[in-house]
Design goal:
The chain has 12 helices and 4 strands, in the order ααβαβααβααβααααα. With 278 residues, the protein is mainly alpha-helical. The longest helix has 19 residues. It is extended, with a radius of gyration of 27 Å.
Length: 278
Amino acid sequence: MNYEIFFDGHFMEYTKAYLEDLGGESYYLIHDTSGMTQLQQFISRVVNKLYYLLAGLRYKKEYGKQPIRPLNLFSRMEKNYMYLLDEKSFEEKTRAYMMRLFENISDREFFNIHELIPVHMIDECGRYFRDLYVIATERDPRDIFLTARHLWLTPDYPCYDVEVFCKYYRWTRTLIRKAENIRVLYVQFEDLVFAYDATVKQIENFLGLRAEDHIYPKKFFIPEASGRNCNLKNKFPEEAENIRIIERELSEWLYNFDEQNTTDAAVGENNDADSRFK
């Protein structure tokens, strides 16, 4: 994403002002080697070894002294800023910076931002925003596995091995902690598909919106279309054994597709974070 375009040409301006506000006028210079290629790293090691060997012949070795200055090949001089401020000041200045960015691009009451903060660090990251509402979604692991393996073709999930996937899925869920200081609504993705009206009502209540505020129903999220990517196990019979392993190892996160025709009123009655996000 081009943040300069997204924030109407003010991203760098506001970011520089933010860094200055943090007290970043003090810095020292360091050699940054992070951009070196493997070939440059190899050449640098060889040249430095030869340089030390030849230069060492010219100096008398003395304990506690290093008269030979190392060569810094291919490195760049970078500024390393020194920030001296307490945690409360950092939080306040960062929150003001975030709000300035978003207020610049719109006067809307709500911003809907996808993946603004990680679900396992809601309290830690949420403190840098004002009036934050988080909607966290969960999805059946069988469909995540099959979608990533056959449809998305993404490296984001280790779907090359079902055992590794199960360990990864369980591990990521153990990182999730129930937020204590941020308003969070936990929603099952499949409920948005199969119990759309009730789940939308649940979201409206959470955000304090009226039904008439929902001006584009089913325009961007189309439950009928998303439903084609739910309960995919029947579309990929060759994955039957992998699905059985997922059902055995991740049973607590499986969605009950057999009850997908349950009345909408039953959706959302149990919205406990511990029951869906473990």
